[in-house]
Design goal:
disordered N terminus
């Protein structure tokens, strides 16, 4: 695809920023950049020429800040991810948490609508950020199938994964809707659910699109997540002592992004982490991580390093902290 002179869309700008950073900051050769990004050396050369022609080379800061941040964040993804993508949403310092949450939701909804199609299969995690994305959807599709990533505890109607499955179907305006919901912890061992759950897990693991939230362990653990763990009889402090830094799709992971087997694996039916990572390594599937806030930085960095997703949607302050290896995580909880 040839770039248009002086006018670039968001994906072109992000790709240009990534190439400029690789070429001028990391001094990589054009053929190596082309190989890393899955494009031809000729296109790399064309993009570098276009960037120089439009004045971006003289002063990289003249490019939109968020595109530069996104390009840097893409460098944090596991090398196993063939086409990493980062979307960084700009916010002013005085914006409210509700406005910040809605902004992430809008960005996620627009991304979702761009990749969605009739007959798409979607697997959802729980979380308020995903709920906000669903609220902002505008396009209608038909014959979609929506799966829950896990049969987790169901407390808050705005974060419950099973309720979000139904919310998505309603907000998406889908016809011939087909929701697939996993039983919760109390019901997962009942014979009536076993076969259905196995079939649902198998189908959910093969979804075209995953949307994942992030739960950070520590003082920033939300009250809903803490209540979930209390109800399951899990001591989150003991999880922390085992080196667990976060939870996504009801699976725990350490600072390297490696899955840590714990009580969550025994008590909750869910798509296995290796299936999620397999989807993230695919050129044709999307595993989107939605999260923001300083308490999430350590967990987010671990997810990117461990190959949990191939797209991250976050805000500019979180992206800056992701790139700052010496950051100190805030002790105060920022709602996600």
């Amino acid at each position: 695809m040839m770039l248009k002179n002086t006018k670039f869309n968001d994906s072109e700008m992000a790709r240009m920023a990534s190439i400029l950073i690789k070429y001028y900051h990391f001094h990589k050769k054009q053929k190596d950049i082309a190989q890393e990004m899955g494009i031809s050396p000729g296109l790399v050369n064309t993009i570098l020429s276009q960037a120089k022609k439009n004045g971006f080379v003289q002063n990289l800061i003249s490019m939109p800040k968020e595109n530069v941040l996104a390009a840097h964040v893409q460098e944090l993804f596991s090398p196993d991810i063939p086409t990493p993508n980062a979307i960084v949403v700009p916010f002013s310092k005085n914006i409210s948490e509700r406005e910040r949450l809605r902004g992430i939701g809008v960005a996620a909804a627009r991304y979702f609508e761009a990749i969605a199609r009739d007959g798409i299969h979607i697997t959802l995690d729980g979380g308020e950020t995903i709920f906000c994305m669903i609220e902002e959807l505008r396009r209608a599709f038909s014959q979609i199938e929506v799966y829950s990533v896990a049969g987790g505890p169901q407390y808050d109607p705005y974060t419950s994964v099973n309720l979000l499955v139904n919310c998505l179907l309603v907000q998406f305006g889908a016809t011939r809707m087909n929701p697939h919901i996993l039983p919760g912890p109390r019901d997962k061992d009942l014979p009536i659910y076993r076969k259905k759950a196995q079939n649902t897990l198998k189908a959910a693991s093969k979804a075209d699109v995953f949307f994942l939230g992030v739960g950070a362990l520590g003082r920033s653990l939300s009250r809903t997540n803490r209540k979930n763990m209390d109800d399951l009889g899990i001591d989150y402090k003991k999880l922390q002592d085992r080196g667990i830094v976060g939870i996504s799709a009801y699976s725990a992971f350490d600072a390297e992004g490696e899955h840590v087997v714990c009580e969550l694996d025994e008590k909750i039916l869910k798509v296995a982490p290796e299936q999620i990572k397999k989807a993230a390594r695919s050129q044709n599937r999307h595993v989107v991580i939605l999260a923001y806030g300083l308490p999430k930085v350590k967990a987010l960095r671990a997810m990117l390093k461990g190959g949990w997703g191939n797209c991250l949607i976050t805000d500019s302050s979180t992206a800056e902290k992701l790139l700052d290896k010496n950051e100190r995580i805030s002790k105060h909880f920022t709602p996600i």
